[in-house]
Write a structure and sequence with these properties.
The chain is α/β, with parallel strands linked by helices. About 25% of the residues lie in helices and about 20% in strands. The protein has one domain: 4-Layer Sandwich (Purple Acid Phosphatase, chain A, domain 2).
Length: about 350
């Protein structure tokens, strides 16, 4: 990192926080197990377990199925009911992507770009983990991010936060691509004359350099706001701060689930109900994405990757149910997958009806 970049990051992030982040990154580069944050042992990053999983998939002949699952996106839309929602924000469409892990190969960046380019949204939010590995070279991920940026073009721009796979040196690279990274910071967008504050914190899971107090310090009391964090582990701290929505990821929804949906591993220090899909805590609505990419092993079972559009609506309007409805699966074999059409969204408002073959 050159001195100019270091000065810029220090002014935004805080000198002491930057020093701790860099020391933590150095430690992580030498240690596969855990960092100073809320995370427990990082099972999927332990080389022996990753290699064992790969071996089992090869010997059982399940590798192809796992790879196919990892490239078959599920696209759905949710309604977020907000009390006293300013009329200007009614029907604002927020694209939420998480855990991209774009440099895993397999053409993931191109597949994601193809799918997202067909969707309508007003602002895009990415909740961390841009790269596949959690240490080592990070420059190649910039090329992969550039592949998806044309598809993310929208009226109010693209915002993101760092995850536990992302070094802080990523920030200038990602911002050169057009993603505004929030490092315990807040930025506002003007939506039809009304401010919506986007508040983002650094990775709470491994690095534990999140600072919500610093992030919201410039946000006027009562102003509309959405929180971006890599993991759901700030659910308690964030409740009561007036956020319309808490967007996060990290868990991949388990990535490898058993038939019936049970996830043996959910690497987050919080109750399971916060680790996948929509949730609520003392009035705070959240959504923990299953993610776009895969971690450790490029495979998924009974846990498809997801792309979600959240639509803000007044709370007195009929809202979504929290029980997942039918979803549109995007199969790589389909040459021209259909665009999501609001007219095909089911009455519960959560998922689109299956597209006819």
């Amino acid at each position: 990192m050159d001195r100019e970049t270091q000065r810029e990051l220090s002014s935004r992030y805080g000198e002491e926080a930057l020093r701790e982040r860099l020391l933590s990154q150095m430690s992580r580069s030498r240690n596969n197990f855990r960092g100073p944050g809320r995370g427990r042992v990082h099972y999927w990053y332990m080389k022996i377990l990753v290699n064992t999983a790969k071996l089992v998939l090869r010997t059982t002949g399940l590798s192809w199925w796992g790879r196919k699952n990892a490239m078959t996106f599920e696209v759905h839309e949710t309604e977020i009911p907000v009390h006293d929602l300013p009329p200007a924000l009614d029907n604002l469409r927020i694209l939420h992507l998480s855990d991209l892990h774009l440099d895993s190969g397999h053409g993931l960046s191109e597949r994601l770009a193809d799918e997202v380019s067909q969707l309508d949204f007003d602002v895009a939010m990415i909740t961390g983990d841009f790269r596949f590995d959690d240490k080592g070279p990070y420059l190649p991920v910039k090329e992969e991010v550039q592949k998806i940026m044309p598809a993310l073009d929208c009226e109010h721009g693209v915002f993101g936060v760092l995850g536990n796979h992302d070094f802080i040196e990523f920030v200038p690279l990602l911002e050169e691509c057009g993603i505004q990274i929030l490092m315990n910071e807040a930025r506002w967008i003007d939506v039809n004359g009304t401010k919506l504050w986007l508040v983002g914190v650094d990775d709470p899971h491994h690095y534990e350099q999140d600072d919500l107090e610093r992030a919201v310090r410039d946000v006027p009391q009562g102003d509309a706001r959405v929180l971006l964090a890599h993991s759901p582990e700030l659910y308690e701290e964030a409740s009561g701060l007036g956020f319309y929505l808490y967007l996060c990821g990290h868990t991949h929804g388990g990535q490898f689930r058993l038939p019936g949906g049970f996830a043996p591993i959910l690497e987050a220090s919080c109750p399971r109900k916060y680790c996948a899909g929509p949730w609520e805590h003392h009035g705070l609505l959240g959504h923990t994405s299953r993610g776009v990419g895969s971690s450790g092993v490029f495979a998924r079972f009974f846990c498809p990757p997801e792309i979600v559009i959240h639509r803000l609506v007044p709370a007195n309007r009929e809202i979504m149910t929290k029980t997942p409805g039918p979803s549109r699966r995007i199969d790589p074999a389909r040459v021209n997958p259909a665009r999501i059409d609001p007219a095909r969204v089911d009455p519960a408002g959560q998922h689109e009806q299956p597209t006819p073959a």
